[in-house]
Amino acid sequence: MKKKLPDWIDFKRKCIEREHPGLSVRRQCELLGLNRSSWYYQPTGESAENLQWMRQIDEQYLKTPFYGSRKMAEVLGIDRKRAQRLMRLMGLEAIYPKPHLSRNTTEHRIYPYLLRNVAIVEHARRPVLSAGIGVGGCGHQHGWSRPLDGQRVRGMFVADGEVRAHLPSRSRETMGKTNTYS
User: Fold this and answer.
1) DSSP class of residue 109?
2) Residue closest to 94 by CA, chosen among 116, 115, 119, 75
3) Where are the domains of the chain?
């Protein structure tokens, strides 16, 4: 198993000169506060078996990036600690919602709710206002249909594919492509 040494130990190892004329390696290690075993330590690479497991973890991760070490170990049939260590070594982490995901940031613009103080009532001169109105279509007993140009939808008129509260004139310029007006 490969031992992960802290970065400052690697720095101290680089500071020691084996062929220094005045200081032995032992004295240099003592001055730097480095154990001599850390100076002589030679890291070993991963075994062929672990490299094979890493390849399989990588293939599975490309298919299912939301698998963590527990699920990855279960799917591949290896020990969870081994899957955890190899995934950490490869820099892989399950994709999942992190904490504070829905917390607002200061850069995010907050849009005002425009219908807060508007009374949603039917009036003789004003059509019914509704936050959910749109040109998406109307569901009915026999299926789903989209309103055509010139039709009324809940007190609004559809012209050029847009819902308008009223049409100021019946001229061809105002109605665009519509040929009929009801």
Assistant:
1) P
2) 75
3) 7-40, 48-90, 138-175
Per the CB < 8 A criterion, the answer to whether 40 and 81 are in contact is: no
* Sole residue written with tokens 């003789």: 124
SS3 57: helix
What sign results for the dihedral spanned by CA atoms 116, 122, 126, 131? positive
From first to last of its 182 residues, the chain has per-residue pLDDT tens of 455 556 688 888 888 998 999 999 999 999 888 999 888 888 888 999 999 999 999 999 999 999 999 999 999 999 999 999 999 999 999 998 888 878 888 888 888 888 888 777 665 565 555 444 444 555 555 554 554 444 454 555 555 555 455 544 544 444 444 444 44
